[in-house]
Amino acid sequence: MIPDRRMIYLGDTARVPYGIRSPEIVVRYSLENAAFLVSRGIQLLVVACNTSSSVAIEALEKKYDMPIVGVIEPGSRAAVRATKRGRVAVLGTPATINSGAYPRAIARLDAGIKVIGQACPLFVPLVEEGWHEHEATRLTAREYIHKIHNRDPDIDTIVLGCTHYPLLKPLLKKVVEGVFNHPVTFIDSALETAITVKKLLDEGLPVAQCPAEEFDSVTYYITDFPVRFKEVGSLFLDEKIEIAEVVSLPSYEVVS
User: Fold this and answer.
1) 49, 71, 119, 197: which one is catalytic?
2) Among 153-162, 172-181, 233-242, which is the least confidently predicted range?
3) Is residue 49 annotated as a catalytic residue, yes or no?
4) Domain range for residue 90?
5) What is the DSSP letter of 256?
């Protein structure tokens, strides 16, 4: 929650996961999502998805004249601050890794840092299944972490480049401790984005306060599967979600 602000959340539950889709489709979906939120009167757009942030931020910034915050830049800044050896790995969906968004963002901050990307397509379904400590998840994580270690055993910072992955952080820490022989710092890009948004508002970003009766409120909209969303969403937020309204999104024709 952000004091004196109302939050509107849209989860495109009918069309996830985005991480296995083409950039063109992700851009189209992201524009449709934004159009819906803008129709609800938002004044600040947070793209709380690494895949959308990787490929659709530019299109969103061209379309809308409002502050737009993605997860790539905050996560990259935190990784640059954290690494001592100049070696960073990014765990992400195939779309996020293939976009090269994290290496570009980190290079803009410090060109001397080496960045390795590791696509982890199995993590999202494992998280949504609730298998956060399951043996299948541990074995999957071990495969991905070993691939990183084989490419660069000096990695000392790992960016969790998908909003699902923080739920696997305890398991990933155990796996990493068994693979690397030195401490490794984990960066939660979602948490860093929340910190960035709060800082912008604290510094006077011109976003109007909502009426007093709407303080600290969150309205949840989704595109399908309300029961499933309430179950999985409650795990992410660590609080019970009671109401989520199913909505239809406006279609958006991408012009090339």
Assistant:
1) 49
2) 233-242
3) yes
4) 80-188
5) -
